[in-house]
């Protein structure tokens, strides 16, 4: 099994891809497969959140690019900015990972949250897409200089990082 224990910040091109959904990209310990089918064990620093395009380095020196897998999402749209801000508040109050889009918010499909959003007047649509939620404002750690030194980590309440 190929071991991956470090993030890669250099400029070398990746020779492999690791396609992961958001939940898998929040785990620091994971047994999975590269896109080629090769089995890998990932052991990253606790609290690592991988983003599309991030790179890892395996013990044998290979560079592996992270690809965000499409997953089942719900997109919420509202008639005005006030209503959109209101649903953002309610999602944030529940510590839900949210992707902010132009005029919309995206969350992972969850029938309870969908019911709440509809009750708040949101128009919902279901889609398959890569999920790249906003980083949490209070969690700090690993960041990429090209994204800005102040980018914070995603704060996931009650989630396991094992």
Automatic annotation (TrEMBL):
It is found in: Cytoplasm. Transmembrane segments: none annotated. Residues 3-64 form the UreE urease accessory N-terminal domain. Coiled coil: none annotated. Keywords: Chaperone, Cytoplasm, Nickel. Signal peptide: none annotated. Gene3D superfamilies: Urease metallochaperone UreE, N-terminal domain, UreE, C-terminal domain. SUPFAM superfamilies: Urease metallochaperone UreE, C-terminal domain, Urease metallochaperone UreE, N-terminal domain. Its main location: cytoplasm. Involved in urease metallocenter assembly. Binds nickel. Probably functions as a nickel donor during metallocenter assembly. Belongs to the UreE family. This is Urease accessory protein UreE. The lineage of its organism: Bacteria, Pseudomonadati, Pseudomonadota, Betaproteobacteria, Rhodocyclales.
């Amino acid at each position: 099994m190929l071991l991956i224990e470090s993030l890669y910040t250099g400029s070398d091109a990746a020779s492999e891809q690791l396609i992961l959904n958001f939940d898998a990209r929040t785990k620091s310990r994971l047994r999975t497969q590269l896109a080629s089918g090769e089995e890998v064990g990932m052991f990253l620093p606790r609290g690592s959140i991988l983003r599309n395009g991030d790179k890892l380095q395996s013990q044998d020196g290979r560079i592996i690019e992270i690809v965000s897998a499409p997953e089942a999402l719900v997109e919420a749209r509202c008639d005005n900015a006030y209503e959109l801000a209101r649903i953002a508040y309610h999602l944030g109050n529940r510590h839900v990972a949210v992707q902010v889009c132009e005029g919309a918010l995206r969350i992972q499909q969850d029938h309870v949250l969908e019911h709440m959003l509809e009750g708040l007047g949101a128009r919902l649509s279901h889609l398959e897409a890569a999920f790249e939620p906003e980083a949490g404002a209070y969690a700090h750690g690993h960041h990429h200089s090209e994204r800005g030194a102040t980018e914070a980590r995603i704060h996931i309440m009650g989630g396991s990082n094992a």
